[in-house]
Design goal:
Blueprint: H1 2-18, E1 21-29, E2 40-43, E3 49-51, E4 57-63, E5 68-73, E6 77-78, E7 80-84, E8 90-91, E9 94-95, E10 97-98, H2 116-125, H3 127-132, E11 136-149, E12 155-156, E13 159-160, H4 161-164, E14 173-187, E15 191-203, E16 224-225, E17 236-237
């Protein structure tokens, strides 16, 4: 029996030695060359991802010997895809274009009701139908949370703030960072399952942070949102709840 274990162990070592790992590094910037902090980088058609740091610098590790496609995303920018050639390490700098939304002009008469109210009434009318139309789903989830200080004072109440939070000379720095990847499953009416694939937390979490999708479930088709989420003792009324017109004022800004 010991010989069998020894052979399996040796085969594992040989297989590991032939496995190739390649590093793709670079910087994500905007059209003016400014870094885009915390841009997301992930391997297309997979759940493998990474994120850039505050200076827009990223590092991605890929195993295998085939060609691959990396997808770069950031809020407010158009995502882009880049093909990379393996097997070799590669330096890949990426520039993202700012995403621009154009809304058409809408003319509203002084004495007429804003067209937004008719849109909201239709949404409320179909609320229950959309709430019940999804029986179940399964999805991959990536969550990233950052707490950052900008231009903090050097001292507060006699304590060295920059030293406590390890800030730079300008009083700026990240004090908390959390990232997680999970597989989230839902089955109506309230069956929820979340499998955590990876989780990383660093720094001080002196405020609130959500590291799981099941901690923050938002559904506008429910009358109440964030109920029991820990954000507060009271829930929030959905903008399309049955009685939303008593609590909200609506204004149509444009039609795209």
């Amino acid at each position: 029996m010991k010989k069998i274990y020894l052979i399996i162990f040796l085969l594992s070592i040989i297989q590991f030695s032939f496995a190739q790992v390649f590093h793709v590094t670079g910087k994500v910037t905007d059209e003016k060359g400014n870094p885009i902090p915390f841009a997301s980088v992930f391997l297309k058609n997979s759940n493998k991802g990474a994120s850039a740091n505050e200076q827009g610098v990223y590092k991605f590790i890929i195993g295998g010997t085939t060609n691959a496609t990396l997808v770069f995303r950031a809020i407010g920018y158009t995502s882009t895809e880049k093909n990379i050639l393996l097997p070799k390490d590669e330096v890949l700098n990426v520039q993202l274009t700012e995403e621009i939304y154009t809304l058409n002009n809408v003319v509203i008469n002084a004495n007429a009701e804003d067209p937004a109210y008719e849109i909201i009434r239709n949404a409320v009318k179909n609320r229950k139908k959309h709430l019940d139309e999804v029986e179940s789903f399964r999805t991959n989830v990536y969550i990233k949370g950052v707490q950052k200080l900008v231009d903090a004072p050097k001292k507060f109440l006699g304590r060295n703030i920059q030293q406590i939070f390890d800030l730079d000379s300008a009083g700026s720095g990240i004090i908390y960072l959390s990232e997680s990847q999970s597989v989230f499953s839902y089955q109506r009416p309230n069956k929820i399952n979340e499998q955590m694939l990876s989780s990383r937390v660093s720094g001080r979490n002196n405020a609130f942070s959500f590291n799981k999708a099941s901690d923050l479930i938002v559904n506008f088709y429910e009358n109440l949102m964030f109920e029991g989420s820990g954000l507060g003792s009271r829930a929030f009324i959905s903008p399309i709840a049955e009685n939303a017109l008593f609590y909200y004022r609506y204004k149509l800004l444009g039609i795209s």
